[in-house]
Design goal:
The chain is an alpha/beta fold. It is 32% helix and 23% strand.
Length: 335
């Protein structure tokens, strides 16, 4: 793991990607859902940032906002900046953004079967991405597709290139998605729960593959997951997200050695450990609040065992508690 740490909010000179005060809202008949409500972080080339939290905390919407793929309506990116090499993606036209997607930034989605077109061969879908962004003919694009399938460990790529998604296992389909994402050598890869639908053996293989490909391509990776084990294995830094905001930001070593936010500690205590068996796993009571009706004060207060009147009325800022370790909590001293 790297020892360096980027601030979650301050400008960073050598950052490949900077997200500054991003806010994405959804306008519905039942009210405005503030799915992403002031998120900031930065990412260097060759580095992995893990974005963790329960379902409904805004992780995937953050990724879709970076890619400008939020469905409008009902969604709308209200404000903020997404800077890729100091170029604000939120200010680009849709035509310009289409060139960025796949070429500069690629994304692996949660479920490959729903992300791949079932009526097109896997090879055609990879070749299509290559032809879209690079000046090559169909024959050359097909050869690149075969080369990428081989690179991600798919056996008999000359045969598999002409097969359809339903002819492959879940792990193989995920490898096809990785091939498609990396076919144009992107600078940034967003991996949104890339191992959710896979068993643990295939999950380990996919994570190992992503780590090797990151090294080969010198990519930055934004790894979105709810699995702290995945974060411990793959990430350099971690941003813990809750109710549309980042509540803790640290290196992996700092986070696992001393989690500061009660929500982070709750996530860790809910994971079984072989070295410290407990009669039963601890759970975080309650649910992530509805994005249309966030509570006053700290958004975690209704579920927090340490919450007092200040927590319920005043929202804590994200501040640096120790070098490179930030938390948004009035009760950090109780950690």
């Amino acid at each position: 793991m790297k020892d360096s740490i980027l601030s979650a909010s301050d400008p960073v000179e050598d950052a490949l990607l900077e997200v500054r005060d991003l806010r994405t809202y959804f306008y519905t008949d039942a009210g405005v859902g503030r799915a992403v409500d002031g998120v900031s972080f930065a990412l260097r080339r060759g580095e992995t940032l893990g974005l963790v939290g329960e379902s409904g905390c805004g992780k995937s919407v953050t990724a879709l906002s970076i890619m400008r793929l939020v469905a409008t309506p009902p969604g709308k990116i209200e404000s903020g900046q997404v800077l890729l090499r100091d170029r604000d993606l939120l200010q680009l036209s849709e035509k310009e953004m289409c060139q960025v997607r796949g070429d500069d930034i690629a994304m692996i989605f949660q479920e490959p079967m729903s992300s791949l077109n079932p009526v097109l061969t896997c090879g055609y879908q990879i070749a299509e991405a290559v032809m879209l962004h690079q000046a090559v003919d169909r024959r050359e694009a097909r050869q690149r597709a075969i080369a990428m399938l081989e690179r991600v460990g798919i056996p008999a790529p000359q045969q598999r290139v002409d097969e359809y998604p339903h002819q492959m296992s879940g792990g193989m389909r995920q490898r096809v998605m990785i091939s498609m994402a990396l076919s144009c050598n992107p600078d940034l890869l967003i991996a949104d729960e890339p191992t959710t639908a896979l068993d643990v053996t295939i999950q380990a293989q996919i994570l190992e593959l992503l780590e090797q490909l990151q090294e080969d391509f010198n990519m930055a990776v934004l790894m979105i997951t709810h699995d702290l084990g995945v974060i411990a294995e793959t990430a350099d830094r971690v941003a813990v997200m809750y109710a549309g905001r980042i509540v803790e930001y640290a290196t992996v070593a700092q986070l696992f050695a001393r989690p500061l936010h009660p929500y982070t500690r709750g996530l860790m205590q809910s994971v079984p450990r072989l070295d410290a068996p407990r009669p039963r796993l601890e759970v975080i009571p309650g649910m992530v609040p509805d994005a249309r009706h966030f509570p006053a004060g700290c958004r975690f207060a209704p579920r927090c065992p340490l919450a007092d009147q200040q927590c319920r009325t005043q929202e804590p800022p994200l501040v640096e508690i120790e070098t490179g370790h930030q938390a948004s909590c009035w009760k950090v001293d109780a950690a």
